[in-house]
Amino acid sequence: MASSTGPELERLIQLLARLPGLGPRSARRAALHLIRKREALLGPLADAVRVVADRVVTCTTCGNVDTSVPCAICQDTRRDPAVLIVVESVSDLWALERAAALNARYHVLGGVLSPLDGVGPDDLNLASLAERAADPVVTEVIIALNATVDGQTTAHFITDMLQHLPVKVTRLAHGVPVGGELDYLDEGTLVAAIRQRTTL
Amino acid sequence: MASSTGPELERLIQLLARLPGLGPRSARRAALHLIRKREALLGPLADAVRVVADRVVTCTTCGNVDTSVPCAICQDTRRDPAVLIVVESVSDLWALERAAALNARYHVLGGVLSPLDGVGPDDLNLASLAERAADPVVTEVIIALNATVDGQTTAHFITDMLQHLPVKVTRLAHGVPVGGELDYLDEGTLVAAIRQRTTL
């Protein structure tokens, strides 16, 4: 390789190979694709990566990534200031935004409690969450963490942490995914779906 | 999405999603990964894409991509000038270079003849191949095209095109892939492997 591809191209391939979803082979394919689509893709990508590298920052209020601090969501006055949605990561925030489920603000924890991985309360954005939840304007904190052991442990930790505050702490409903088939669901989900059944 | 991720980030995601192997969802994951690894990955990638966008050119001699014209392979005086290896694409050139099968020079066709897709002889780098093969120093042209219908049609076309020249035209051997199991091979490959058997 070193003799056939120049060092510049080799470096691009090595960096692309470190993206999730790409390996050494697909990184080479991606690099060739970029070179073939020089005008439409390579040039614009160079600009886009540079702009993001120079300008994207983490919101000091909620932990979202954006080009402004506070981020566009925290600045958005049309959002309900009474509701905070607690998420594990920015990708979860994006998922909820795509679903457009609720016009509220977020708080990105940056992970979940995980004693096995050495992640304790001090490693997460929990202090800032307690601070934001203490704001009198906030009436509800929705915990939108993954339904995993670590996620649920973190949810209980947050509930305990906020219990002295006059805010309602809620969590996402468990149940049958929309479009899901009962036959393929685990027992825990089915029990939750039965227990939390709603009237038609 | 538009409201939650800024336009700069959205643009990066859209461009990443156009890379082969990445879709909209994995492009978002890749963008977040880049932002998390800002120092180690995002900054270097911005530089690497810019350098490649500015400096990579197609070699006017062989069709390889490199930062110099002629490319490093065409300039390499240690390579056998008597042998030309004809490949469909730069990725095939890279594959042969990785295998280090032969220390020769290449000629990238930029595709294969495909009447159904409207690819005729004028769409490929065939004229320049005839020119290079006419150089008295060249004694052999190895046709290293895919063993597909279009690849083999192109191979025959090249053989005809070069038959008035005093060069030997050869093609890659057909046979059992190294590490391959006979049980999984098609009949055509097995027949070729039997016919072209070699003495131990």
UniProtKB/TrEMBL annotation, chains A, B:
Q: Gene3D superfamilies, alphabetically?
A: 3.40.1360.10, 6.10.250.240, RecR Domain 1 (1.10.8.420)
Record keywords, A-Z:
DNA damage, DNA recombination, DNA repair, Metal-binding, Zinc, Zinc-finger
Extract the signal peptide range.
none
Q: Which Pfam families match?
A: RecR_C, RecR_HhH, RecR_ZnF, Toprim_4
The record ties this protein, via SMART domains, to:
TOPRIM (SM00493)
Q: Which domain of life is it from?
A: Bacteria
Instruction: State if Isomerase is listed as a keyword.
Output: no
Protein's UniProt keywords contain Metal-binding: yes
UniProt cross-references to CDD domains, sorted A to Z: TOPRIM_recR
* Segments forming C4-type zinc fingers: 59-74
Start and end residues of each Toprim domain: 82-177
Main function: May play a role in DNA repair. It seems to be involved in an RecBC-independent recombinational process of DNA repair. It may act with RecF and RecO.
To which protein family does this belong? Belongs to the RecR family.
What is the name of this protein? Recombination protein RecR
| Biological source species | Camelimonas fluminis
The encoding gene: recR
